[in-house]
Amino acid sequence: MESRQILFRVAAGGASALLLGTSALAQEACTAYTVKAGDTLGTIAQAAYGTGDYQNIFNANREVIGDNPAGLTEGTVLNLPCADGSIAGDATAAQIIEEQNKIAAERPKSNAYEPPVKFLAGGNYAPFSDEALDGGGFLIRLAETAMHRGGNTRDYATAFVNDWAAHLETLLPTGAFDVGLGWYMPNCEKRDLLSDSMKYRCDQFDSTLPVYEPVVGYYTTKDSAFAGATSFADYKGARICRMDGYFTFDLEEEGLVPPAIELVRPVLPEDCMEALMTGAADVAGMEVQSAADAIAKLGIGSDVVENPSLSKVLSMSFITHKSNPFGKQYITLLNRGLTEMRNTGEWYAIISSTLDEHNKKMMEMSN
Question: What pTM was estimated for this model as a whole?
Answer without folding.
Answer: 0.84
